[in-house]
């Protein structure tokens, strides 16, 4: 076989040396190779070199790549393409196949690296570690121009073999360096006697290691110290407990902590959570419950059962003595009101007393016997009823004093500075003479109705519905007026128990405040029940009040309409018309206005449950302007507005305006006002005339007789009921001039002149005994008295006035 091989080599060498007789071009060679591939003679892939003048097989390419890796250990794919002279695409493809088939190779960031390369790098790192004790993996990665993760993954399997070091937190440390740092961690940890955060311990250790390594040393990560600490703790070289990885509690501190808790709890029978926090125990309740199963946790303290027994004894004595106790006063200052309340609920005596309703707890810490509270409440309840009555009647107008003032006698001869008469006087004089001021006008005689006709029986119900339509806010305000305020209740409690005043009324946690809050709803319910009873009692009175008011207004308003018709006779005399209008407004109109306003006010109070004396609903009412305004203000809604309009019209100068506003208010109130028809007018005039004839026949005062005679003449002549003040008598007589004969007219004018003279003398008289005007007054009065029969004959005697 060797001889044959040698022969073949010689023939091949000869063939290579022989020069061809025919030379092929590059194009011919390429075409020839393509033809051989088409014929299947060449059945494998051929790759072109970058020059295009050579062919190379894929197997040869892989062999050359493997040879370069074996020679260099770390080679770039790009460098392989340049070295071999094949396109980068084919080199990358074949390099991937080479790495895939050889587990000792790795392709990283375009570079093929063998394990032998990493072994040599590991040996170099180990040599450097012996010099500097520690190296950062990031530093090595930067020098090798690879990632830190790759370096770390390569070094980990070689630690302890090729690399005599410890990898921790991205740092390589020699065993000697680790032992040195371990000794530092052990010493620093054993020097701690109170709970500490290990993060604060590693900072000075880092500084110490940095000084030990010098300026070229690398900073040590906290994780390195922590791992050493965890190892030492696991090996029980340090005693204590580690919580959340960084909170270290030495066993010496835990022992001292438990001894302190035991001492405090055994001496005081309680311990506060605040003191537990100071001892470094965060979960105090769990700690104490596990250590003292018989104890009771409260809001701020943990107590022994003996504390409950002590409080139970104190509260039991207070309940039996029908007294009260503040449980905080018998407990230490560290106890809160919540603690006291929970303890009270655990006391057997308190539990039984609460169940039997013999005691109650106020403000969490105050225990009061039911008898003690009832004694205070009974006394305050009586005073609260008095307060409610006083509050409900405060706005009620008492007309009795005004009636007495108004009915006092006023001299008829005063000209200036005289007091005003309010409303209708008791006298039935029809009018006074001219010299009497407007404000001293006598009231007119009333016409009497023969028989009142039936009226709408639903007027009372209508008034109730109107008054009941008020707003809820008004109701609430009225209810609040009769409910004693908190300050009043607390004052009455202090009056009953003076010792409560020591806590003060401003302290929201005082027993005074809590007891007042407890009694206030009871007082409100009591007053509401009482008011409900008053409502029931007032229902009948309200019906009677409306009936009486309707009766009074029926007669008075018909008279007002009758008197209004007489004003039409003086529409041409403006000055006299103004006087007559104002006179009628200040007399009859004022009376019916006061009656209506007072009746509505009383009805409103009765409906709201206010107690009103029986006499106040029956007395004659005489009001001034301010009182009428106050009554109008007390009404509700549209009633108040219409009442204000009525008061304003009463102060005006026109009777017709007053009549409109009066009708509006009466209609709003549900009252029915009768309209004066012809039949009623004749009936009233007949009654009024009969009354005047009776008064003229019996009148003995010569001054008062003149006004009644003039009124009677107007009825006979004009069929009108005239209400004239003294100032308008002269104008009224002048209005009769064309209706009387000369002698009758002369009798009237002479009598009126003599009356004016008499009143002037009486006004100028000083009243002294030797006053010279007394004789003249007597003479003039005698003259008038002598003329009285002649004056009466004008309306009663044979001399009859001429009819138009």
From TrEMBL:
Similarity comment: family membership: Belongs to the UFL1 family.
Name of the protein described by the UniProt record: E3 UFM1-protein ligase 1 homolog
Domain E3 UFM1-protein ligase-like C-terminal: 681-793
E3 UFM1-protein ligase 1-like domain boundaries: 547-676
Organism (species): Arabidopsis arenosa (Sand rock-cress)
Record lineage: Eukaryota, Viridiplantae, Streptophyta, Embryophyta, Tracheophyta
Chain positions covered by the region annotation Disordered: 395-483
GO cellular component: endoplasmic reticulum membrane
Domain named E3 UFM1-protein ligase 1-like N-terminal: residues: 4-288
Keyword Coiled coil recorded: yes
């Amino acid at each position: 076989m060797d001889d044959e091989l040698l022969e073949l080599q010689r023939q091949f060498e000869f063939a290579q040396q022989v020069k061809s007789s025919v030379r092929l071009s590059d194009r011919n060679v390429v075409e020839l190779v393509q033809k051989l591939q088409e014929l299947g003679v060449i059945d494998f892939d051929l790759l072109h070199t970058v020059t295009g003048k050579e062919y190379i097989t894929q197997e040869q390419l892989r062999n050359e790549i493997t040879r370069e890796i074996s020679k260099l250990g770390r080679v770039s794919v790009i460098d392989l393409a340049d070295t071999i002279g094949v396109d980068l695409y084919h080199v990358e493809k074949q390099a991937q196949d080479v790495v895939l088939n050889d587990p000792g190779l790795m392709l990283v960031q375009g570079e093929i690296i063998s394990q032998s390369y990493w072994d040599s790098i590991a040996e170099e790192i180990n040599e450097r570690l012996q010099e500097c004790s520690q190296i950062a993996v990031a530093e090595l990665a930067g020098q090798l121009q690879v990632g830190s993760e790759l370096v770390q993954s390569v070094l980990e399997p070689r630690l302890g073999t090729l690399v005599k070091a410890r990898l921790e937190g991205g740092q390589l440390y020699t065993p000697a360096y680790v032992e040195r740092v371990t000794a530092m961690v052990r010493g620093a940890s054993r020097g701690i006697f109170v709970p500490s955060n290990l993060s604060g311990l590693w900072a000075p250790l880092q500084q110490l290691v940095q000084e030990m390594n010098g300026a070229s040393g690398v900073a040590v990560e906290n994780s390195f110290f922590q791992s050493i600490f965890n190892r030492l703790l696991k090996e029980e070289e340090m005693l204590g407990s580690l919580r959340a990885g960084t909170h270290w509690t030495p066993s010496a501190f835990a022992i001292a902590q438990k001894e302190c808790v035991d001492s405090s709890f055994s001496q005081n029978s309680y311990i506060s959570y605040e003191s537990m926090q100071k001892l470094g125990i965060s979960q105090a309740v769990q700690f104490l419950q596990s250590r003292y199963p018989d104890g009771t946790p409260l809001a701020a303290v943990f107590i022994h059962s003996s504390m409950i027994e002590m409080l139970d004894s104190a509260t039991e004595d207070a309940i039996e003595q029908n007294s009260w106790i503040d449980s905080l006063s018998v407990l230490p200052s560290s106890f809160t009101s919540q603690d006291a309340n929970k303890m009270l609920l655990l006391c057997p005596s308190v539990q039984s007393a609460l169940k039997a309703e013999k005691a109650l707890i106020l403000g969490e810490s105050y225990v009061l016997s039911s008898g003690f509270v009832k004694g205070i409440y009974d006394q305050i309840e009586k005073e609260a009823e008095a307060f409610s009555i006083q509050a409900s009647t405060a706005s009620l107008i008492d007309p009795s004093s005004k009636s007495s003032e108004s009915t006092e006698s006023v001299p008829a001869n005063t000209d200036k500075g005289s007091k005003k008469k309010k409303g209708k006087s008791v006298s039935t004089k029809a009018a006074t003479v001219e010299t009497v001021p407007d404000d001293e006008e006598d009231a007119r005689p009333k016409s009497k109705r023969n028989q009142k006709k039936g009226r709408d029986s639903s007027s009372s119900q209508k008034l109730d519905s109107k008054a009941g339509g008020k707003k809820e806010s008004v109701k609430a305000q009225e209810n609040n007026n009769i409910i004693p305020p908190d300050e009043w209740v607390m004052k009455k409690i202090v009056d009953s128990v003076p010792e409560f005043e020591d806590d003060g009324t401003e302290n929201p946690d005082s027993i005074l405040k809590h007891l007042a809050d407890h009694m206030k709803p009871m007082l409100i319910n009591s007053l509401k029940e009482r008011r409900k009873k008053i409502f029931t009692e007032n229902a009948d009175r309200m019906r009677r009040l409306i009936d009486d008011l309707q009766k009074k207004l029926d007669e008075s308003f018909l008279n007002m309409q009758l008197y209004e018709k007489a004003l039409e006779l003086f529409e041409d005399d403006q000055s006299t018309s103004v006087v007559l209008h104002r006179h009628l407004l200040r007399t009859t109109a004022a009376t019916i206005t006061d009656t209506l306003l007072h009746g509505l006010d009383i009805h409103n109070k009765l409906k709201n449950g206010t107690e009103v004396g029986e006499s106040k609903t029956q007395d004659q009412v005489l009001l001034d302007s301010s009182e009428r305004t106050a009554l109008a203000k007390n009404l509700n809604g549209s009633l108040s507005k219409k009442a204000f309009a009525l008061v304003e019209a009463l102060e005006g100068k026109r009777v017709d305006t007053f009549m409109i506003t009066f009708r509006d208010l009466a209609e709003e109130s549900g009252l029915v006002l009768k309209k004066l028809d012809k039949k009623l007018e004749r009936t009233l005039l007949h009654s009024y005339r009969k009354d005047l004839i009776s008064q003229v026949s019996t009148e003995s005062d010569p001054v008062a007789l003149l006004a009644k005679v003039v009124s009677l003449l107007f009825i006979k002549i004009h069929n009108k009921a005239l209400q004239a003040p003294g100032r308008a008598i002269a104008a009224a007589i002048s209005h009769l001039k064309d209706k009387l004969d000369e002698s009758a007219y002369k009798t009237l004018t002479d009598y009126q002149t003599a009356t004016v003279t008499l009143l002037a003398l009486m006004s100028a008289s000083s009243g002294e005994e030797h006053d010279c005007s007394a004789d003249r007054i007597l003479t003039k009065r005698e003259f008038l008295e002598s003329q009285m029969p002649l004056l009466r004959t004008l309306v009663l005697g044979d001399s009859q006035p001429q009819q138009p």
